[in-house]
Amino acid sequence: MTDDHVLGPGLLPTPFTAAEIRESSRAGKTILLRVEQPDGTSYERVNRFRDGDDEGATLEQWRTDAPGELSSRRVTWRELQEHAAFAADRTTVTSETVDLPLGRLECLRYETRDEPDAVPATFWFALAHPGMPVRFDAPAAGGGVIRTTVLEVEPGQAIPPPSTTSAEPVT
After folding, report:
1. So what's the pLDDT on residue 168?
2. N-term to C-term CA, the chain
3. What are the angstrom distances between the C-alpha of 14 and each of 65, 117, 119, 168, 171?
4. What is the rounded CA–CA span in Å between residue 18 and residue 36?
5. 103-112 and 42-50: which strand pairing?
6. Rounded to an integer, what distance in angstroms lies between the CA atom of residue 126 and that of residue 99?
7. Of residues 16, 84, 91, 25, the one with CA closest to residue 52
8. pLDDT digits (tens, 9 = 90+) for 111-169
9. What is the pTM of this model?
10. In the chain, % of residues over pLDDT 70
11. pLDDT the model gives residue 70
């Protein structure tokens, strides 16, 4: 019996499976994020899923102060799950309740390091929001930390089930 949360040897279980991310995102989920730079500046970014299917979706991203600079690429649900596949020997996982713009959330907190003495990157995955972390702190190349926080999540429209009625031929 395999665990769909474990993507390979030496990796911790991911907080969500590809199927859980798919069910949460394929209908067109939109996420508004705030990105805070080490120098004190910040900006907002939007991630939007469209054209979702069983394998993946088109992920569109843009900064709210530059909506004409849209990036768009096809991603698979498995690729998105892989973003949270951390090495077991360099990562700790704890449960933590955090207060964020989305509210008070029960999270799995992953703290991971590239090297044993490196500054950790920390990711908070809200159990109520399968997909990307609702907050993450990552070391910046020039020092300090880049903090990304989810401000809003719009779930998108549910995909209606296929019609089970057959059309009568027109005569």
Report:
1. 43
2. 54
3. 33, 23, 21, 48, 56
4. 28
5. unpaired
6. 11
7. 25
8. 999 888 889 999 999 999 999 999 999 999 989 999 999 999 998 865 443 333 334 44
9. 0.88
10. 91
11. 93
How far is the CA of 141 from the CAs of 83, 138, 144, 165, in angstroms?
A: 20, 9, 8, 58
Instruction: Give me the half-sphere count of Cα atoms (radius 13 Å) on the Cβ side of residue 62.
Output: 13
**Inter-residue contact 125 to 110 (CB < 8 Å):** yes
Average pLDDT, the chain: 90
User: Side-chain half-sphere of 71: how many Cα atoms within 13 Å?
Assistant: 8
What average pLDDT score do residues 47-60 get?
Answer: 96
Cβ atoms of 25 and 17 within 8 Å: the answer is no
Measured CA to CA, the distance from residue 123 to residue 139 in angstroms comes to 12
List, as one string, the DSSP characters of the chain: ---TT--STTBPPPSS-HHHHHHHHTTT-EEEEEEE-TTS-EEEEEEEEES--SSEEEEEEEETTEEEEEEEEEEEHHHHHHTT--BGGGEEEEEEEEEETTEEEEEEEEEE-SSTTSPPEEEEEETTS-SS-SEEEEE-TTSSEEEEEEEEEE--PPPPPPP-SPPPPP-
| Single-letter amino acid, residue 121 | A
